[in-house]
């Protein structure tokens, strides 16, 4: 069985294949992938993503990696609307659950004008590969299966890899190997540990 580091080392050869970037050989499915990993390897994965971005984005690969950290996007949007400091105060007075729900409303999650989806859509170009990160940090406000479901109709020509701290078996998402998220069947497991 391959280690997380060995699996990470297989990402660059995989994403440089023309067939990966063109979504070929997927039975006409959208090229969405989930790279699941043991949560204790979070810092290794973050460092490796930075290494890959630097290498690809400064090289002549013919594409760019655009990383979207869901947690950082959430904070940026809330701050730009003047809600971030208000959320801290609300949490002190009314508790975390209240703030989670207020933040979801402010971000318009799962609506036709979802601000997280719009943020990503407005920042990708045709020759990009999307790396979604920050999944564990953004939970429970942003749920991974919800983001993937809502991105499908908007970003369907650009390959996407979600880095998921937990387990994905091709159907079930288990965040941090403890929190069962809703099932998600439209993504392919990226860089299988048995390869």
UniProtKB/TrEMBL annotation:
InterPro entries referenced in this protein's UniProt entry, alphabetically: BrxB
Record protein name field: Cytoplasmic protein
Organism: Tepidanaerobacter acetatoxydans (strain DSM 21804 / JCM 16047 / Re1)
